[in-house]
Hints:
Layout: E1 4-12, E2 17-27, E3 34-41, E4 66-69, E5 78-81, E6 84-94, E7 102-109, E8 115-121, E9 125-128, E10 131-142, E11 145-149, E12 156-160, H1 161-164, E13 176-182, E14 185-190, E15 194-202, E16 215-220, E17 225-229, E18 237-241, E19 246-250
Antiparallel strand pairs: 1-2, 2-3, 4-9, 5-6, 6-7, 7-8, 10-11, 10-13, 11-12, 13-14, 15-16, 15-18, 16-17, 18-19
Amino acid sequence: MAQTFVSCPSYLPGTGTRMTHVVKSWPCACSSSTRYSSLSFSPLSTFRFRGVPGTAPRRPALPKIYAFSSNDIKVGSNVEVDGAPWRVIEFLHVKPGKGAAYVRTTMRNYVTGNTVEKTFRAGSKIEEADIFKETKQFTYKDGPQFVFMDLTTYEEYRLNASDVGDKEKWLKEGMDCNLLFWKDKVIDFDLPINVKLKVVEVDPGLRGDTAQGGSKPATLETGAIVNVPLFVEKGQEIVVDTRSGQYMSRV
């Protein structure tokens, strides 16, 4: 007796989820009709379906908590101590003749600007501050505040002059910088490593043997003073390393 298997798709009520009935049919011996019997259902997990765009559940935003060894501390490490974010600006691994080894650090508080010295036992676990960076453009100075803008959303972010510090001398309107966020608040920013700035003042009467690598002070458009080679003239643009404040090249 011949048998036939038929796949009949249908949907789970109220969900829009597809499932399949597998139906077996065979001819009836007493008549010319065909009898059907539903035998099984395929698992729902074997079918892929699409929902409404944008309606996928979002994972809860959990704080990132990382820990690293004090042996891995370096200049620029971001650590969280007593609920505050700190940046390591100096460190020294100490191995005394007697007693346990330790790491001596000098750290700056991102929020208050205070600098303290703190020691950590060698190999101890330290919590890393959950700090992330986003590129924003410095647009203008509003009194004692420096205004940065997100060019996509046009949202403004402000830093006080005390937060900017001596980095102001390299800051130029229209410059892209990395803002540092901690708990959704701006706490600091990083300048580009190299910046192009125009020379607005230089002593034209200063002469020297350029082959001997002589230099002279030049005032830049931001007010910074940099030693430049003798061949650099007023009105020219130069490249400066913002980390060291040194002249790199002429544009």
